[in-house]
Sequence to fold (227 residues):
Amino acid sequence: MRVLLVEDHPTMRGLICDHLRKRGFAVDMAPSGDEALAAIRVAVYDAVILDLGLPDMDGMDVLRRLRTERQPHVPALILTARDSIEARVGGLDAGADDYILKPFDLAELEARLRAVLRRPGPRSAALFRFGDLTFDPGARSAAVAERSLELARREACLLEELLLAEGRVVVRDVLEERLYGFDDEVSANALEASVSRLRRKLVAAGSLVGVEVARGIGYRLKLGVAT
Fold:
């Protein structure tokens, strides 16, 4: 899942980004409102984490433009030190899905992020199933015929995207956008390497599910694929 983090404080921004990346999220960072709006124009996000005290504009203006111009349905979590009832009500009325006061615990932020991602929508399923393969998006855990399947962070993200497609081909460019943030160092064959590792692990686990290549297009999950 890809998240946009809009936070002007460099230390806070780094801490949140590092924590979420370790938990399996692709994270893009924007230290200002203008940069946040620029990112939203070129990438699709699963969630936005938004500080209100930005150097160039109020975060509420970013939220309103997100809702009216760009991605009206993406979950948005506000981070702020503004603790008045009026500020909280204003943020929620403007379209925020949650309102988190600073200071906060990173584990709580992650839990609240996952909570809004579980709300109705294609990514809200408690458990994905395909053949003998299951995946829990909340725990980032996979199993083959009830036996645990150990996956690296990027492999788990890849599997989730393929499971969401339910056997349809996912275009290569879409997968790269979903798996990697702007700041990630990505080699030319990074996606192929992740697909290869995921495929090998499925084969080693004896799964009936495999990853099929649609040459020149992308990848999909398919039953009975041995390679």
